[in-house]
Design a protein that fits this description.
Pfam families: ArsB. One of its GO terms (molecular function) is arsenite transmembrane transporter activity. This is Arsenical pump membrane protein. It is a multi-pass membrane protein. One of its GO terms (cellular component) is plasma membrane. The chain is an all-alpha fold. The protein is built from 19 helices and no strands. Helix 3 packs antiparallel against helix 8 and helix 17 runs antiparallel to helix 19. The protein is globular. The two termini are about 40 Å apart.
Length: about 425
């Protein structure tokens, strides 16, 4: 009976989260789901405490990083970077494609995939329209920016909310995570750019006239905040490294940096601080707790144990199958039921496996890769993709779900395999 209730509640909550009926936020949906899980006896108060212990650092870090991104965007930081990259293309279409892809990867690395997808995409669209590119070239560059945002959100703990949740659950410090995933992310970037180029090569323009764009310095709306931001971001990066050495939560440093940015920007005529605070993704905190309480119901019903047995079966055949199998399972589940619940379901299952510590850690990284890349297969794979499609539609760029799925599955599967192969090889080199 508990299994039926746990599965039924999970399906209903997940459907409402993806569907997002008018007036019903994902935060309230997940919160109600969590309360129902308690009322129905699917989870206990101890489970709720365990969930809060897992997600509080992840969600607060994510909110802080997005808030920093919003302030930098208002100051003109990202537009300046995009214009600089466009100028570096020297009027060559293929170079524009490559530079914008590299910029997307860098933004995803430091400001999370949501920042890359939701903040950078409108800037890329504005540049494309200023360049006067045709609809086919526009679609190619827009799809590339959205794809890169997720497939290259692997290198740092803060590059994706999925990364933060997994790193916290498996106690993977910032430096350790980076050592394992940064080289893998470089491979993911190369594979993504190659796959995107092969798919869209006929649509990319041979020449572009970057003289039609404004100069990068013209994009800076608050020079003081722009200059100070480099210092704050540098100190934030140092703080991330210190988080592992001092055994402090990453959110302490990300939150401190966000507060400094708010203080520096408070009197800026170009940065609407109060509005940006309201726009920060606070609902993600409620969503994470509520959603993972519901997911714990699946564990209590014994369903994650079934998945752990499957993972044990893969590990029996060696580390290669453990890495590739875990990654593809995570990608498949993410594509059909969203990557946020998937990362925790898989993490719970990995924790229950009977493998040695080295294989278990590699599985944890493979789970991250699958949950970062898998959402690109379908539009419902991540909340960021649904929001990204909405951003495009508001700018009169409509991408059907059928087209997205056709492109997503064609590009994602080979990139996912190559990236998991890189993880397996690199893990062997550094010894787990």
């Amino acid at each position: 009976m508990h299994s039926v209730l746990a599965i039924g509640l999970f399906v209903v909550v997940l459907t409402l989260v993806i569907w997002q009926p008018r007036g019903l936020s994902i935060g309230w949906t997940a919160a109600v789901g969590g309360v129902l899980a308690l009322v129905l006896g699917i989870v206990s108060w101890a489970n709720v405490g365990e969930v809060v212990g897992i997600v509080w650092d992840a969600t607060l870090t994510f909110v802080a990083v997005i808030l920093i991104s919003l302030i930098l965007d208002a100051a003109g930081f990202f537009e300046w970077a995009a214009l600089w990259m466009a100028r570096a293309s020297h009027n060559r279409g293929i170079r524009l494609f490559l530079w914008l892809g590299i910029l997307g990867a860098l933004v995803a690395m430091f400001f999370a995939n949501d920042g890359a997808a939701l903040i950078l995409t409108p800037i890329v669209i504005a540049e494309i329209r200023a360049l006067g590119l045709n609809p086919r070239a526009t679609l190619a560059l827009v799809m590339a920016s959205g794809f890169i945002a997720d497939t290259t959100s692997l290198p740092l703990v803060v590059s994706n909310l999925v990364n933060i949740v997994s790193a916290d659950y498996f106690h993977l410090g910032f430096i350790r995570f980076m050592v394992h995933m940064l080289p893998v992310d470089v491979v993911a970037l190369a594979a993504s750019l190659t796959a995107l180029y092969l798919f869209y090569r006929r649509d990319l323009p041979n020449r572009v006239d970057t003289a039609a764009l404004k100069r990068p310095e013209q994009a800076i709306r608050d020079p003081r905040v722009f200059r100070v931001s480099w210092l704050i971001l540098g100190l934030l990066l140092v703080g991330y490294f210190l988080s592992q050495i001092l055994h402090w939560p990453v959110s302490v440093f990300a939150g401190a940096a966000a507060l400094v940015f708010l203080a520096v920007s408070y009197r800026s005529p170009a940065i609407p601080v109060t509005r940006l605070i309201r726009e920060a993704p606070w609902k993600i905190v409620v969503f994470s707790i509520g959603m993972y309480v519901v997911v714990f119901g699946l564990r209590n019903a014994g369903l994650t144990r079934l998945l752990s047995r499957l993972l044990d079966g893969l590990a029996v055949h060696g580390s290669f199958w453990a890495a590739v199998g875990t990654g593809f399972i995570a990608a498949g589940l993410s594509s059909v039921m969203n990557n946020m619940p998937t990362v925790m379901i898989d993490a719970l299952a990995i924790h229950q496996t009977a493998v040695n510590a080295g294989i278990r850690e590699m599985m944890a990284y493979a789970n991250v890769i699958g949950c970062d890349l898998g959402p690109k297969i379908t539009p419902i794979g991540s909340l960021a993709t649904l929001l990204w499609l909405n951003v495009l539609e508001r700018r009169d760029i409509r991408i059907s779900w059928g087209y997205y799925f056709r492109v997503g599955i064609t590009l994602t599967l080979p990139v996912l395999f190559v990236t998991l192969l890189a993880l397996w090889g690199w893990s062997a080199v550094i010894g787990g």
